[in-house]
Amino acid sequence: MLQALTTIREVIPELFPGAMGFEVQPHTLLNEIPEWDSMTSVNFKVFLEETFGVSIPDDLLEGGSSIGEVITFIGRADS
Q1: CB distance 64 to 36 below 8 Å
Q2: Do 57 and 18 touch, CB atoms closer than 8 A?
């Protein structure tokens, strides 16, 4: 989980330029990330799928999900 969180933290400023300096925690809701919208969520989904080799369901990336929920899903899909 820690490695996934670190990887996500590193890419957030690239995918969401307005999030430079934004502190991402497991409890952070996706819609709290500056510049989060439907287009950036697609970019985030592609990043997750390519980086972690899992298929991410669209409903997981709705704004009400947390970074921790995404990481938990990745961990379960990877095992």
Answers
A1: no
A2: no
18, 35 contact by CB (below 8 A): yes
Helix (H) or strand (E) holding 8: helix 2-15
As to burial, measured by CB atoms within 10 angstroms (0-12 exposed, 13-18 middle, 19+ buried), residue 24 is buried
pTM of the full predicted structure?
Answer: 0.90
State the first-to-last Cα distance of the chain, in angstroms, to the nearest integer: 12
pLDDT tens profile 10-56: 999 999 999 999 999 999 999 999 999 989 999 999 999 999 999 99
Q: Given 3-state DSSP classes, what are the helix, strand and coil percentages for the chain, each rounded to the nearest 5?
A: 65, 5, 35
How many Å is the Cα radius of gyration of the chain? 11
